[in-house]
Design brief:
The protein has about 140 residues and is α+β, with helices and mostly antiparallel strands. It is built from 2 helices and 9 strands. The chain has helices at about 1-20, 30-35, and strands at about 35-45, 50, 60, 65-70, 75-85, 90-95, 100-105, 110-120, 125-135. Strands 1-3-4-5-6-7-8-9 form an 8-stranded antiparallel beta barrel. About 15% of the residues are buried.
């Protein structure tokens, strides 16, 4: 009985130590894959393909956690970026602006996908799905 209690105690301590070592930070591989200049492969506005309207769209995520975005209309925006601990949300914050979340993100060296919400007077809030490739 004493051996069983000792075994259970050591097992509990080992599990606790492993759990405490879990990091909430994004993985270094994910961050290094994100740091790149990306261009549009496809854009879906709801279920409608609007890729042709985004030929100018690029976003460059830099190592110093800043970004440079060229919007669909050709205008530019700069600011800072972060990635959530589960690597599923990329948040960009334009200089002097409000944070924007790109959700359901998947990040690899060859493809970046995410969803953004767009509010339209005609259609209300619509999910816009971006698929980007290295520029």
């Amino acid at each position: 009985m004493k051996k069983a209690i000792t075994y259970i105690t050591y097992s509990f301590i080992a599990c606790f130590m492993i759990a405490c070592n879990t990091s909430d930070a994004p993985t270094p591989d994910t961050l290094s894959e994100l740091v790149n200049k990306w261009k549009v492969e496809s854009v879906l506005f709801g279920s409608t393909d609007v890729t042709a309207q985004y030929t100018n769209y690029t976003i460059e995520f830099k190592e110093d956690n800043t970004y440079l975005l060229t919007k669909a209309d050709g205008s530019s925006e700069a600011g800072s970026w972060t990635v959530s601990s589960d690597n599923k949300t990329i948040t960009i914050t334009p200089t002097g602006g409000t944070a924007i979340n790109f959700t359901e993100a998947t990040i690899s060296a060859t493809k970046l996908t995410y969803n953004a919400e767009e509010v339209s007077a005609k259609t209300g809030t619509v999910a816009v799905t971006f698929t980007l490739v290295p520029a």
